[in-house]
Specification:
The protein has helices at about 20-25, 35-45, 50, 65-75, 90-100, 120-130, 150-160, 210-220, 230-235, 250-265, 265-285, 315-325, 350-365, 375-385, and strands at about 10, 60, 80-85, 105-110, 135-140, 140-145, 150, 165-170, 190-195, 205-210, 290, 305, 325-330, 340-345. By secondary structure, the chain is an alpha/beta fold. It folds into two domains: about 10-15 and about 265-385, Aspartate Aminotransferase, domain 1; about 20-260, 3-Layer(aba) Sandwich (Aspartate Aminotransferase, domain 2). Strands 2-10-9-8-5-3-4 form a seven-stranded mixed β-sheet, sandwiched between helices. The protein has a five-stranded mixed β-sheet with strand order 1-13-14-12-11, with helices on both faces. The relative contact order is 0.17. The mean pLDDT is about 100. The structure holds pyridoxal-5'-phosphate (PLP).
């Protein structure tokens, strides 16, 4: 079908890039070793910190989020070190595979892809580790494959309750800039993030926020590292520059995106995401369908996973919605392929965009022959009528 108007990019990343950010990125590339760049670099390296809830260093890589995963591991760990991972979904599975591939010894605690990391399981595993062989706990804050958010403060408390010295490494690739996050207050050692989700940029930048404890670990960590090494990065960052060519135009975009988050106010950004998530769940349940997340405390504010009834293929429904209504929805990943679709409601987004998104989903479900209650969207619209 020929499409007119704007495409609805309602996948949970990459998200809709605001026009302001696109225009900022259209400026000519500058000399990344000149004084003008150093000013930009310095400004951004400071302005990014509140989004992480940190006063500690944040490093920026010219890479997708996967690079920052690797950076978090290779800077803090040594070959054969034991790490604890939790099977919250597809992304947690990929990160643990990377850890194995890098020569770490991974304990992967199984999960059902409908719950976050159980704080009690963390406490049990760490208190059983009397030899203190576990060097790091890896947690995906917002599991983008399922729409389940793990409770980081409770996980921190669980670690502290055992007195275990393991580092806490957290992936916030689909939560940073959308969901409340406090690197310092929550005692996270390395926070991993990416540009193309809550930060409203195109793909291509990734981040590590680094605690003092993580920095100390990096002095003795023995995994091979070069491109990802924090040391030359932090040294150059002191002068607002980078040890190799940065993604200059993405940094122009980042400066603009950070201004937008600051203008709205982070508390308002977080409240907006929760409100849109709540409205989305009202629609899904109104249709008579099931939200994948099975714990009311763990619903993601940035995306919603929707189970399709037996006998229906979620990918066919997505294909119909793309063809008819020019809207991209997230696919089920890994073992959820065909079983769910995911509605992204994060980034540069508003009430009418959500109303349009939910209308498109509802019409697509009807066209696909999924038996739903077509008054379902009303509960969402009623929610959006209230502030
Ligand atoms: C998107 C995502 C990744 C992968 O990031 P890339 O930018 O595709 O490398 C990892 N973890 C989570 C939670 C994600 O949402």
């Amino acid at each position: 079908m020929t499409h007119t108007g704007r495409h609805f990019l309602q996948i949970p990343g990459p998200t809709n890039t605001p026009d302001r950010v696109l225009r900022a990125m259209a400026a000519p590339t500058m000399d990344h070793r000149g004084p003008e760049f150093a000013k930009l670099g310095w400004e951004i390296l400071q302005a990014i910190k509140p989004v992480f809830g940190t006063t500690q260093p944040v490093v920026i890589y010219p890479s997708s989020g996967t690079g920052a995963w690797e950076a978090a591991l290779v800077n803090t760990l040594s070959p054969g070190d034991k790490v604890l991972c939790f099977e919250t979904g597809h992304f947690a599975t990929l990160w643990q595979e990377m850890a194995e591939g890098l020569g770490l010894e991974v304990e992967f605690v199984p999960g059902d892809w409908r719950h976050g990391v159980a704080p009690q399981a963390v406490a049990d595993k760490l208190s059983a580790d009397t030899e203190r062989t576990v060097k790091a706990v890896l947690v995906v804050h917002n599991e983008t494959s399922t729409g389940v958010t793990s409770r980081i403060p409770e996980i921190r408390e669980a670690i502290d309750s055992t007195g275990h010295p393991a580092l806490l490494l957290v992936d916030t690739i689909s939560s940073l800039g959308s969901l409340e996050y406090k690197h310092d207050e929550w005692g996270v050692d390395v926070t991993v993030a990416g540009s193309q989700k809550g930060l409203m940029l195109p793909p291509g930048l990734s981040f590590n926020a680094i605690s003092e404890k993580a920095l100390a670990a990096s002095k003795t960590a023995k995994l091979t590292r070069s491109f990802w090494s924090w040391e030359p990065m932090l040294e150059a960052n002191k002068r607002g520059v980078f040890p190799y060519t940065p993604a200059t135009n993405l940094l122009y975009g980042l400066r603009e995106a950070l201004s937008m988050l600051d203008e709205e106010g982070l508390a308002n950004v977080y409240a907006r995401h929760q409100r849109h998530a709540e409205a989305t769940r009202l629609a899904v349940r109104g249709w008579g369908l099931e939200v994948l997340c099975a714990d009311e405390r763990e619903h993601s504010g940035s995306l919603t996973g929707v189970l399709v009834p037996e006998g229906h293929d979620a990918d066919k429904i997505r294909a119909i919605i793309l063809d008819r209504y020019n809207m991209s929805l997230g696919a089920g990943l890994g073992k959820l392929t065909g079983r769910i679709f995911r509605i992204g409601h994060l980034g540069d987004f508003n009430d009418l965009m959500l109303a349009g998104t939910l209308a498109g989903v509802q019409m697509g479900l009807v066209v696909a022959g999924v038996p739903i209650d077509t008054t379902g969207i009303n509960a969402a619209l009623e929610r959006l009528q209230r502030s």
